[in-house]
Amino acid sequence: MDRTELELGPGFTVVTGETGAGKSVLLGALSLLAGNRAVKTIVRKGAEECVVEAELEVGDDQRFDEVLKGLDLPSCEDDLLIMKRSVHATKSGRISINGGAATLSQLQQLGELWIDFHGPGEPQKLMRVETQLEMLDLHAGLGASLATYRAGWRQRGELLREAEEAATAERLSEDEEAFLRSQLGKLDSLDLTDEAVTKLERDHARSSRAQELALLLGQLEAGFGSEGIGEVLPKLLKASDEVARIDQDAQTLRDRIISLASEAEDIRADFARLGRGLSSDDELAPGLEQKMNLWLEFRRKYGPDTSSVREKREGLRRRLSSQGDVEARVAQLKADAAKVEKELRKQADILHASRTKAAEKLATAARKMLGALGFKKADLRIEVASASLGPTGADAVSFLFCPNAGQDLLPLDQIASSGEAARVMLALKTVLAAVDRTPVLVFDEVDANVGGEIGAQVGQELAALGKGHQVFCVTHLPQVAALGHAHLVVTKTQDDKSTMVEITPVHGKRKERESELARMLGDRSSKVALTHARELLDGAN
Which residue, 98, 111, 196, 541, has most beta carbons within 10 Å? Predict the structure, then answer.
């Protein structure tokens, strides 16, 4: 089986190799684990499947376990997120997350959390307006204000939903209403908390098998009492005393027998208490039986668990309450929703003011960074326009960009050049590094169409991003490659029957890394190129 295993450390990792050497292998593996679509042609001819597996150290970032819990997947153990995906040549592929079977959609949701791609043909989160809004809010420090707003938005939605239910609910007949009230009364007679139902099931099991328990407890008490251990232990104690007087080395063993006797007496007393409790259970048995029958009935009707039954109970309560003065109830619910909406509009105005102020600061910082990355005449603006009230306020945010003077500002997703798009992303990522919580960033063609001086600046910014993120960059520029904290070289070998791609770490091998940089400079056998390569590495340290 052909396989490659890599331990990818923190910081800035560069990936280099000849054109067509297969540098996309690593990026393709990351893309598969991010939940992107796969074609079966990635499976090598003659092989059955392609398998990619990764371990991601998530540290104390609670977002991962929160998302995994929502997806009903195993949580991270030892701070590790373990992902595995196989693409089969003829059958459906398989996905597992932390050992649990998962779907492509679930893998995609996790991918949104841990990795961001910037390059041709890859999904770019910053191209989406919702992500642009999220980034602006992070830059503005609006986390707490947004949480308060969203809670109010959910409350408004719930009030409007109840109003619609009340307005459209069919009227119940007298018999139907009487039945529902009877059902609700029975439901209210039970404590439907998880703890109470667990106790009810335990007490009922104890009560229903009282005779069997009494017989077993009697046997245990006899065994621990005068008919069993209780008869033997005093004799053993007496004998151990005699042994200890003769041989002091036996003193410890004597003490252990004393401890055993004490523990045996405690166990006997505890079993005796259980036995005495059976008589009080007899008095409660009819009530327990009635409650248990009710619980079993409701679990069968509305189950399978307590939360389902509780939800049904509240549904019955709402259904009955809607039978009163429907018009008055609908009017009250809508009035309550309008009151909440009025407060939401005040909060939305505050959010708008904060976003407008932050947009100018963020755009100014990004323009400065774009200048350093070779866009001398570029412009970037962040537009905050009024919009309908929604779950994030009443704003529509758009990042607009033009690479050259005299051109129109356009939304980021309309930028034609993938190289330009990647550098814009780099500029924004650099400015937002302190608030961007995506741990893994992947850049492809970020240095496209730039010269050595700008390439060096690109490399410096990527290296700076690597201080707070794990950054991967496929590059053809030696100025960028020299700045990597880690350096992977991709090579391809071919014969008449097969093609092999190999990924080799060279960051711990000075001579090999110098040779690779010299190749990127034009000739790995040239003394001038090797000298330049050494200078680049020396300057990066």
Answer: 111
